[in-house]
Design brief:
This protein is about 70% helix and about 0% strand. With about 100 residues, it is mostly helical.
Length: about 100
């Protein structure tokens, strides 16, 4: 359960869009382990060496989209994992 001292992801993303770097740090702390595991799972053994690249690129896309981001029916975590999934699939397609 979330209390007042633990804002939800959407609140943190809005704060980050307004320049609050600590909000981004909290989002990263909250999701980094699960996101990395997800990326490794999507890429599989053959492309596991590129997991770091996909993981970092996903977070860079979050940073780049912070001012345009708005929840459109999906929670932040869904959006984050969708970004990672698309990036991983693009990489797999390029590598054959």
């Amino acid at each position: 359960m979330t209390d007042d001292r633990d804002p939800d992801d959407d609140t943190l993303m809005r704060a980050f869009a307004q320049g609050d770097a600590r909000a981004f740090e909290r989002l990263y702390e909250r999701h980094q382990a699960a996101l990395y595991r997800f990326v490794r799972r999507v890429l599989g053994r053959e492309a596991a060496t590129q997991a770091d690249e996909v993981f970092q690129d996903t977070w860079l896309r979050v940073v780049g989209a912070r001012e345009r981001w708005s929840p459109q029916g999906a929670v932040f975590r869904t959006w984050l994992f969708t970004l990672a999934h698309h990036r991983a699939i693009d990489l797999l397609r390029k590598s054959g």
